[in-house]
């Protein structure tokens, strides 16, 4: 791609990733461009050309529902009814407590982006680029950052946002033995069609992605059976509807120990008559601050021993999905196993999967599909873009190696710990720093806060080009 700023000589902000993080960042930038009369070109780069829907909302299966109710999923923190009003304009009779299909929410994000583009004219412009960002080149302190794409083209920008979302799952050791019957990423284009053809499906992982895979496989074939395995064998808990009001947890000030936090949460649940959902919902807005108060060793201890228990209570199932999963289990069409996949052999079109349980005993399962739903990988697990960023010293992993190190405002830290003035991030790449950073309420707040900083960044690099309207404060 040619240098996009060449034609108009206006600031360019490149966003790597076209899912919710990238879309909401673009929307807030375009709104600022319009409200302050600031010319700007926003370039959103998406690997599969799924601008707006990204990975999370590209599903075509109507059984795949949001795991939060509609009144919590507006794109705008200051307008909680925005999603509901839009849904009613397209003929959906929805209440705030309803759980919309994810494909509908993808349409909503596309609408929000299209509206922002139309309203930003003539100041803000959007370019949608389909491609895989493979490397960033920073030639000097004043030159543009070049986003190199895997096809040999690139985009020059005054600032870059890494809005990569959750990275695909890391390859499982059995992938080679399973061959084409192994589905590495259920959200790759065409993957759901392959899952629908399976009569016996083994899913690695028992979280929300496994739920979606099980719903798709068993809906497509009345004889389909799903086996799901994980180390703990825990399933996400169902939502209560209507949800109880959040309940605060009494915590000490200052540095926090994991043991203190766990005791305080258990005490809050006990004092609330055993009702845990209200306690979890009361904790959620404070998780980034609580996470920062834990020492490094306690953070690691949480990830090793507590995280899975927190996740199944925090990321819950819509009632309809929970009811369907309960039905599948009672009818013998979904089996949840506690163990690890330790071997696979191919026999014609079938696979024999060896599962080793927590007690060391093994059992063989004959399946015709294996789906990796074990959760997002770390940037250190082979993602080319992050690997090259780290190697070039333009970024460094956070100390837990869950994502990218950054300052409070999302500026990426280089190898020496210095915040970049041109490379930023938000959403899942900040998991090591904030832990709670993957859901829409967190992402939309980060996008709204990041957009003014990006505008200041390109203003500093491009002055005096940014004269009309001034800059937001």
Automatic annotation (TrEMBL):
> Which Pfam family, giving just one, matches this sequence?
NAD_binding_9
Q: Which InterPro entries match?
A: FAD/NAD-bd_sf, HpyO/CreE_NAD-binding, L-asp_N-monooxygenase_NS-form
Q: Where is the FAD-dependent urate hydroxylase HpyO/Asp monooxygenase CreE-like FAD/NAD(P)-binding domain?
A: 14-166
Per its UniProt record, what SUPFAM superfamilies does this chain match? FAD/NAD(P)-binding domain (SSF51905)
Q: What is this protein called?
A: FAD-dependent urate hydroxylase HpyO/Asp monooxygenase CreE-like FAD/NAD(P)-binding domain-containing protein
Can you name the source organism? Thermobispora bispora (strain ATCC 19993 / DSM 43833 / CBS 139.67 / JCM 10125 / KCTC 9307 / NBRC 14880 / R51)
């Amino acid at each position: 791609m040619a240098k996009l700023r060449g034609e108009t000589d206006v600031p360019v902000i490149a966003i790597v990733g076209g899912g919710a993080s990238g879309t909401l960042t673009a929307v807030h930038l375009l709104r600022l461009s319009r409200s302050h009369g600031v010319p700007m070109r926003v370039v959103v780069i998406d690997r599969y050309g799924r601008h707006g829907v990204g990975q999370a909302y590209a599903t075509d299966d109507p059984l795949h529902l949001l795991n939060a109710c509609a009144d919590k999923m507006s794109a705008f923190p200051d307008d909680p009814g925005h999603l509901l009003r839009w849904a009613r304009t397209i003929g959906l009779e929805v209440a705030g407590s309803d759980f919309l299909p994810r494909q509908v929410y993808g349409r909503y994000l596309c609408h929000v982006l299209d509206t922002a583009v139309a309203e930003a004219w003539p100041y803000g412009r959007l370019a949608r680029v389909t491609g895989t960002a493979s490397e960033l080149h920073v030639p000097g302190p004043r030159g543009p950052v070049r986003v190199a794409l895997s096809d040999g083209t690139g985009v020059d920008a005054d600032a870059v946002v890494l809005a990569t979302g959750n990275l695909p799952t890391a390859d499982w050791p059995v992938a080679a033995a399973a061959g084409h019957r192994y589905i590495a990423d259920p959200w790759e284009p065409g993957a759901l069609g392959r899952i629908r053809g399976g009569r016996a499906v083994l899913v690695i992982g028992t979280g929300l992605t496994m739920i979606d895979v099980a719903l798709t496989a068993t809906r497509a074939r009345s004889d389909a059976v799903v086996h799901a395995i994980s180390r703990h064998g825990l399933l996400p808990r169902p939502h209560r509807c209507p949800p109880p009001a959040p309940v605060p947890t009494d915590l000490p000030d200052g540095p926090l120990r994991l043991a203190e936090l766990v005791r305080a949460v258990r005490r809050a649940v006990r004092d609330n008559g055993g009702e845990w959902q209200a306690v979890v919902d009361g904790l959620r807005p404070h998780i980034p601050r609580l996470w920062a108060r834990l020492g490094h060793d306690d953070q690691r201890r949480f990830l090793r021993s507590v995280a899975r228990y927190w996740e199944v209570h925090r990321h819950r199932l819509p009632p309809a999905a929970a009811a369907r999963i309960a039905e599948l289990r009672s009818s013998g069409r979904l089996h949840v196993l506690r163990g690890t996949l330790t071997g696979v052999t191919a026999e014609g079109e079938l696979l024999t999967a060896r599962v080793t349980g927590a007690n060391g005993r093994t059992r063989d399962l004959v399946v015709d599909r294996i789906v990796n739903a074990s959760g997002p990988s770390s940037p250190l697990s082979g993602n080319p873009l992050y690997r090259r960023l780290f190697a070039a010293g333009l970024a460094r992993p956070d100390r837990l190696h869950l994502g990218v190190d950054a300052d409070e405002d999302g500026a990426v830290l280089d190898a020496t710990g210095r915040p970049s003035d041109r490379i930023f991030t938000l959403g899942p790449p900040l998991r090591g720093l904030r832990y709670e950073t993957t859901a829409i309420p967190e992402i939309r707040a980060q996008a709204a806060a990041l957009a003014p900083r990006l505008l200041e960044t390109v203003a500093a690099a491009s002055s005096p080009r940014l004269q009309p309207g001034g800059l937001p404060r």
